[in-house]
Specification:
single chain, 53 residues
């Protein structure tokens, strides 16, 4: 959703999304390849890897 945006715009969008989710008592499912982003946004994470073979 935000990977093509500059860091400031990306942060503003995620802040707005998180604020709305909190006000409405909603959970979010965030899927990303950006581990740093996931770590900063999420309380719990699940790593999913497919073993080549």
């Amino acid at each position: 959703m935000t990977s093509m945006l500059d860091a400031l715009t990306q942060a503003m969008i995620w802040k707005a999304v998180l604020d709305i989710a909190k006000k409405r008592n909603l959970g979010l499912l965030v899927i990303s390849h950006d581990g740093a982003l996931i770590s900063s946004l999420c309380h719990r994470t699940l790593d999913y890897f497919i073993q080549p073979g």
